[in-house]
Every structure is written in C-alpha cells, then in structure tokens.
Specification:
Blueprint: E1 2-4, E2 7-9, E3 27-29, E4 35-39, E5 44-49, E6 56-61, E7 68-73, E8 77-82, E9 88-93, E10 98-103, E11 109-114, E12 119-123, E13 128-133, E14 140-145, E15 151-156, E16 160-165, E17 175-180
Antiparallel strand pairs: 1-2, 3-4, 4-5, 6-7, 7-8, 8-9, 10-11, 11-12, 12-13, 14-15, 15-16, 16-17
C-alpha cells in the first residue's frame, strides 16, 4: 500500500476487487459541486476540491503512477486532480453533462460518457479525444474497466450492459457482448 497524507491505495490494480474502482470510499463526488478525499481509517476529510460549477456525477482514482483522481460533472467537464497539488491539473470540456468516468489501466487515458451516449477516450498527454465508442440507446450511468485493462463494462438507462474491447488494435466492432434486462439501481 502507498500512503498519501494517511490515504491508502493499492500498489497494484489487482490487489483489490475489480468492482471496487468506481465506488472507492476514499473519493466521493458531491451534489455541492465538490469532490472530497477521506482518510478511511480515521473517518476524516483530508482534501476538498471545488472547481466544478455543477453536480459531480462520477469520480475514479488512478491505479498506477501518481495519486490522481478524475471527476465528471453536470457542468460538462471532466477534471483531473493530482492529490499532491492544489486545484485541477487538467480540464476536459464536453458539450454535454458527464455521467460516468474512469481511468485506463496505465492511467494515461480517461474514459468519459455523457448524455450523448458516446464514450470518449481522452489521451492525457495530448489533451484530446483519441477514440469514441457508441452503442447504448440511452444514457450510460456507470463504467468499469476489466482487471487486465482490455475491456470496458458499461451500464446504461437502456437496461443493457455492454462489454467493449478498448485495446488499441481491436476489430472495428468493439462491442463484444450485450446483456439485456439489467435493472437500474444495481451497481456494476
């Protein structure tokens, strides 16, 4: 475990359940337009980040490299935060509200989705969209990266789960599987 101001995070991605990524109790998006980091063992807030201008819908910690968190908001932006610094270090603007967000396995890209039902893959170094993925007929509410970083599981309001191949040289049709009948309210 690495420790940053008392905040512990796993050294390796596979040291925790792959389903723990998005709902990490250390990082919480708030309806008051903030993102907060908590010291779980002590139960004390250690950082409050307040640069979004609307509700924070989603947040995700990085698994590798520096202690980063990415957040998505109703203000139509994703923000990248380095927990060692004050303020967001990068902002990724979109036309629509961002409802789901996550890091790539190497933490060099982020995945965002908004009410346009389009997943955008942003390259952090180039600060631009390098890939877009489509398929859901309604808004995507959650996304989760596979343990090996090759696939993205998405859950949409169209009551489907989709498994998308996000490897660089994947076939043109990146949707590997569609699972119908998923009821909203069940976390992935």
């Amino acid at each position: 475990m690495q420790e940053l101001h008392g905040l512990k995070r796993p050294q390796e991605r596979n040291s925790r359940s792959p389903m723990d990524n998005r709902r990490d109790p250390d990082n919480i998006g708030e309806p008051d337009k903030t993102l907060r980091v908590w010291h779980v063992e002590v139960g004390k807030q250690i950082k409050k980040m307040a640069e979004h201008s609307s509700f924070v819908n989603s947040c995700c910690p990085s698994w590798r490299g520096p202690p980063l968190v990415v957040s998505g908001s109703d203000d139509g932006t994703a923000k990248l935060w380095d927990l060692r610094q004050h303020g967001a270090i990068q902002t990724f603007p979109d036309k629509y509200q961002i409802t789901a967000i996550g890091f790539s396995d190497a933490s060099d890209k982020i995945h965002t989705d908004g009410i346009d039902n389009e997943i955008k893959v942003w390259d952090l170094r180039r600060n631009k969209v390098t890939m877009t993925l489509q398929g859901h007929q309604d808004m995507i509410m959650e996304m989760q990266l596979s343990p090996d970083g090759s696939y993205l599981l998405t859950s949409g309001m169209d009551c489907t789960l989709r498994i998308l191949d996000i490897r660089p040289y994947a076939p043109q049709n990146r949707c590997v599987k569609i699972l119908d009948g998923v009821y909203l309210g069940y976390d992935i």
